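Q: My collaborator sent me two sequences in one message, no labels, and asked for predicted structures for both. Can we handle them in order? The first one she listed is below.
A: Yes, handling them in the order given. First sequence, followed by its structure tokens:
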Amino acid sequence: MLVFRAIPKQAATSTVLTIGNFDGVHLGHQALLTRLADYARHVALPAAVLTFEPHPREYFAPESAPARLTCLREKLMLLAGCGVDHVYVCRFNARFAAQSAQEFVDEILVRGLSVRHLIIGDDFRFGRGREGDFPMLQAAGAAHRFTLEAMETVTVAGERVSSSAVRDALREGDLAHAARLLGREYSIAGRVEHGAKLGRRLGFATANVQLRRARPALTGVFAVQVDGVGATARPGVANLGYRPTVDGSRRPRLEVHLFDFDGELYGAHLNVRFLHRIRDETKFDGLDALRARIARDVGEAKAFFNAQAAGG
């Protein structure tokens, strides 16, 4: 998959295109991307995605913008797995936000990407003040000879699949429901970086996984499976949050303790899959109380994996 950090002034080839934020790449996104890839293969053109960085809501209202389900790197990896050939990452800034719907059509869809077929979600709006809509794209398609298709909403057990629904499930600690909407377990990927090494002093060495998001979509203590350490996934327990007992950090941290592992992971790229929520993040009365609670967390996580292995 090729990733472009800007829209070309003039397209070198025509594309089959979809547009969106694709945060989480959930089942609804996957259905759209499957349709995109199938159509692109049929007409022998690249399957292309136009996405935005930062998320438009992060630009307009950073304090109230939703927590990201995926950072850009994670999103790109998921898009590649859905058969996408080209991703255009459009910088969402003041100039782009001021662009009219007609300019978006002329400069991006027609000249920059030479759209042959466009597939959009049923709620897609675009341009300054969200003035562009489906009828406008229909008219543009007739004028510029591209076809247009709207994807219907995907539902799971009668619920509309959306990034917001996934965030709600994660916030409530319902990881099984989040996984049903995503089509996979929710995960966070990142490189292991050096930390304060407090975990080792407490008797539970942790890998500090880099977080590329201002705030996580979930916090607490979890039973996790970790990919990237050897050939098979390894079980462990993770704390995701702000370490209130230690320093009350304003920057969220993901710390993972792997069971029965004694090695160095600095620089490794891990994928942490969240399987079971154990508890909220809590401020304890000193490190001894924290150590005792971590031991209980480890015990609860191991009990969860033992129950899984036993078919329960």
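Q: And the one she listed second?
A: Here it is, processed independently of the first:
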Amino acid sequence: MGTVDHWLHDRPPTAITADAWSLDRSHPNDLGQQVDAVNESLEQLRPWMPWAQVPADVASIGAFLRQADVSWEEGREFQFAVHADSRGADEGGAELVRPIIGYCGLHDRLGAGALEIGYWVRSSHTGRGVATAAAAALIRAALAVDGVERVEIHCDAANTKSSAIPPKLGYRLDRIDRRPPEAPGETDQHMVWVFPS
């Protein structure tokens, strides 16, 4: 499928249902909405995400979306915008714009046979099960991709909201690695959760 010689030759679907939400392959049309979602959520993201230390703008998010497109084609990363699943239409019949309520992805950072899941949720939508549903949907999508044998979630031990998700989904805490903090809220305790356990 891709033009790069790489271990992962299959791809997940470009649209995935996750309970009341949908995961849709990132697209350049997401630009304005993603800038808004990141900036609304900066206070929540800043402690855990190295990229969230300054406000997002059209240049930074545009570069992210362009790289996401390249990485998808290469089979190295699969980025998804999370939307409410309802697809309404206005009085003229045009489909309504569904706001981005989070972002998630599958990342080839672990070597052949494994993908890592990452996720974040817009501040106005936290506490509603969005990240858990998205992560569950990504497990199913990842393990359906030819060559993927396991999925991992990595997070800092101090990030209690993020670390609460893997055990709900049947992950096993494989280990806690020591690594230098990369964001202000991090410790040097890096949790590695593995599925299937």
